[in-house]
């Protein structure tokens, strides 16, 4: 269930933590040595659109313990609604910050992601970027699904390496379905659904320049890097976000008028 230790902003039926990036990192670090595990999601425009089309997935996603706004459009929407989020808190940035904290505090990290058989390559990259990090990596088989035997085997693997922090890099919605449906079985402090964060942190994918991130244009950089895969997502599906903002704003106006 959503964590009540910090204020939240309600947007698109999600209770998003109203914290700065530094506050978010500190909040998560407080949880690392505690049990049961807390699941973290970082919604962006694509998530919001997909959740609107799938009420069952929305209900599951909204049950995450911590929800941070990954996309600048969500921050702008909060301003439009009159309850401002202080800034975006991306999964990619949380990945870096928590790996650094884990090096300092001797926490164990598990990463679920990558292509099958890629573990050795990823381990070598981690050794270069985070030389003092205790990290274990597991790349699930093709066809991985939260309902099949591989999903349970992956949970068992996570518990066998005694991880304090688990980064799930399987893409949306698969990473959320696996993490949230299996949440009560994890022997860890945090389970974070962070998509491509590992690839950015290890230099396997190039992230947008800071100015593009702050301007809400990170999507354009990703589209330019992989237009064949991403054009439909950004140029077709995600345009549905704007009517959702309009509807949310209009409903707020109706509620305000009704209370007068």
UniProtKB/TrEMBL annotation:
Keywords assigned: Glycosyltransferase, Transferase
Pfam families reported in the protein's UniProt record: Glyco_tran_WecG
Superkingdom of origin: Bacteria
Example of a GO MF term: hexosyltransferase activity
NCBIfam families given in the database record: wecG_tagA_cpsF
Protein name: WecB/TagA/CpsF family glycosyltransferase
């Amino acid at each position: 269930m959503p964590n009540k230790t910090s204020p939240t902003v309600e947007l698109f039926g999600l209770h998003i933590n109203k914290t700065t990036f530094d506050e978010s990192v500190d909040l998560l670090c407080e949880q690392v040595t505690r049990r049961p595990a807390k699941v973290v999601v970082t919604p962006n425009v694509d998530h919001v659109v997909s959740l609107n089309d799938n009420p069952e997935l929305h209900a599951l996603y909204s049950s995450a313990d911590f929800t941070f706004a990954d996309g600048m459009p969500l921050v702008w929407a909060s301003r439009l609604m009159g309850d401002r989020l202080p800034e975006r808190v991306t999964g990619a940035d949380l990945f870096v910050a928590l790996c650094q904290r884990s090096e300092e505090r001797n926490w164990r990290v598990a990463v679920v992601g990558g292509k099958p058989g890629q573990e050795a390559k990823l381990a070598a990259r981690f050794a270069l970027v985070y030389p003092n990090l205790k990290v274990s990596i597991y790349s699930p088989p093709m066809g991985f699904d939260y309902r099949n035997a591989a999903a349970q085997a992956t949970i068992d693997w996570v518990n066998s390496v005694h991880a304090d922090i688990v980064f799930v890099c399987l893409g949306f919605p698969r990473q959320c379905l696996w993490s949230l449906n299996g949440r009560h079985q994890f022997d860890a402090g945090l389970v974070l659904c962070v998509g491509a964060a590992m690839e950015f942190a290890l230099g396997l994918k190039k992230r947008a320049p800071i100015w593009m991130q702050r301007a809400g244009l990170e999507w354009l950089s990703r589209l330019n890097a992989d237009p064949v895969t991403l054009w439909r997502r950004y140029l077709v599906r995600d345009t549905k976000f704007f009517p959702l903002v309009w509807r949310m704003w209009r409903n707020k106006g109706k509620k305000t008028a009704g209370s007068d």
